[in-house]
Amino acid sequence: MNLLRENTSSAKTWNLVRNFFLMVGCYFLYFFALSIIKIIFPDINFSEYEQTELQELIKNSPLKFAFLAVVLAPIAEEGIFRSLLKPSAASIKFFICTIVYIIGLMIIPKEAHWALRYVLLALFLGFIYYALGELISKSAFSKICYFFHKNYKIIWIGGALIFGFVHIFNYVDVLQINFALFLMIFPRIIAGYFLGKVKVENKNLIWPIFLHAMNNGMAFIFMLPQFFESL
Q: Which residues cross the membrane (predicted)?
């Protein structure tokens, strides 16, 4: 793991870019290995697993898709999977707010305008974040941080694995796993590893959020032709 010699914004920005290209390089290795696996196991059926909801969303509302993929998903998912990785008191509060956000999405009717839903939730979460700072003592936050710092490797690798497996629901409605699905979510496990890596190295949650946004932005660019084909 790369340990930054300088605790500066420029050093952290370079480390972000470096990890992005390392992650992309691992993607290329993955697709190369996948092509070999397809030759060895020609009966593996990937066609039955399609990201139909995402494909429909980018065709019908590319602006909403871009907002969800490049802005909201990186913030929410990093809040869940990386905020407890070598955390500060602020990132622990952010983790709790992210859980409240997920619950809020389940409660607020889907019929409400999508932008209104997220604005209302953001305002509410701002209040929750402030309240947590007032209700939980600094000593309690210090003890919680110490526990998670001590076990950061488990949280790093475990978070990467869970991050990958959660994305199974991009392809199926009910939790299941088989060899084909595992191969399809493996790039997310790769991403989860590098998102955790940049969090540990840069020591702030904003950096994996940036890396996540860059990753999803790259995927969005590759998916854009589907939108133009539908015009």
A: 20-41, 92-109, 115-133, 154-171, 177-196, 205-228
Instruction: Render the chain in DSSP notation, one character per residue.
Output: -PPPS--SHHHHHHHHHHHHHHHHHHHHHHHHHHHHHHHH-TT---TT---HHHHHHHHH-HHHHHIIIIIIHHHHHHHHHTTTSS--HHHHHHHHHHHHHHHHHHHS-TTS-HHHHHHHHHHHHHHHHHHHHHHS-HHHHHHHHHHHHHTHHHHHHHHHHHHHHHGGGGT-SS----HHHHHHHHHHHHHHHHHHHHHHHH-STHHHHHHHHHHHHHHHHHHHHHHHHT-
The residue extents of the domains of the chain are 51-87+139-229
pLDDT tens for residues 171-183?
888 778 888 899 9
pLDDT tens digits, one per residue of 39-81? 999 888 877 777 667 777 777 777 888 888 899 899 999 999 9
